[in-house]
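Trying the structure run again after the queue cleared.
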Amino acid sequence: GLLFWLSLGKKEIIISTRASVIFSLVLRIHPLPRRRKAGILPSLEDLLFYTIAEGQEKIPAHKFVSALKATGLRTGDPRLKECMEMLKVTLKSTSDGVMLDRHLFKKCVQSNIVLLTQAFRKKFVIPDFMSFASHVDKLYESAKNLSGGQVADYIPQLAKFSPELWAVALCTVDGQRHTVGDTKVPFCLQSCVKPLKYAIAVHDHSTEYVHRFIGKEPSGLRFNKLFLNEDGEDSAPAALTHLSKKLASFNAEKFDYVMNFLNKMAGNEYVGFSNATFQSERESGDRNFAIGYYLKEKKCFPEGTDMTSILDFYFQLCSIEVTCESASVMAATLANGGFCPITGERVLSPEAVRDTLSLMHSCGMYDFSGQFAFHVGLPAKSGVSGGILLVVPNVMGVMCWSPPLDKLGNSVRGIQFCTDLVGLYNFHNYDNLRHFAKKMDPRREGGDQRQHTFGPMDYESLQQELALKDTLWKKVSPTESNEDSSTTVVYRMEGVGDRN
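Done. Tokens:
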């Protein structure tokens, strides 16, 4: 297609018509100040300022922060560390400590402009995040009214939690966050840790090795039954044998090893340990010891494994504490193919994530797994502490927590919330079949193709749109203006910037 020549500093590059039209379109929407020379287009920092300022010369810092939160991002997001630190420093240097002009604003945002541009152009997986969050709040309130279920009492420490506690937290694959309820209260993962340690085992040793010792089929029996399949395997993949050879070998280091993984999955948010729960687990763990000796008799453990040490390790892992907020990031790491959304770090291999989600889908909800797969159609794992770790692949991770359990050991409010969520949105694995009844799709703004803040054009790829700033501009020297050091683009065509 037609190409425009652009000049940056003393070097020349070619850029596609599409990118040129994008910037000229924005130029029409946000005219440049007259003091700028004709032909100079605004930087991405300028465009962001114009969008938030709405015609004003300055913007209050709190207006920028509020607009940022409306996209789903948090000021504490590790990816925005430079921006937030610069904002604090800059505000201290202003006369009123509140207002930012264009120059100061650009100084604050330029280090994180790519992420901010994605956010404000509604390029995240859930573009209309405020609307989505408001629907989540309604689902939360609906489930809050439920009063059935009993708090688990066979582990004394769990029995101390109030049945009124109820929390939901979510994190999308783009790092958008929403929480409602008692989301900062720590609680133990219990069985919700099982898919996580399974993922670590597969990450370290491959699916083939791990499944020498465990099966893939749900047993259809209670989670604490003494039972092996006809091949002598533990048929419940989420049982306590989800341990790799490496974890079984280094007793002094294995707990720290797993904690390090979980911290990375949680984006370094809260992951703790409840020693009181651990001691309580050991003192009331006769059934688990019975299962352990039964598995040892049937030679289900790797050779050389110390069964009692493994059980202690199992009790430790069940006693790991999280909050709904940190656990939602763990779930989002699974939803994001093993990359933590808020740090960008690769934590788990694609193989580990795929196989973990497969088993969560078929075996994650105790004896309710078939019903949950049928009605909700998403990978999930529950625990007797009242947690439900829910994964919407390529969209988000969710942690629901409420201590009252139904007769199968699942959170009453958590089950209701997950069911209602899929009843409202097309998250079920088979909701997207052709000719199927339509539900709301939060991945599309207004239920249609995503709209764009800066204009009506249908942009094919975010990578193309941000190439000027994120990739292409790194290869050339920026043109220095007499006002600031931000990157600008100069057209070599007559009349392009002459509207002012």
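The first helix runs from residue 17 to 29. Worth checking whether this holds up in the mutant runs.
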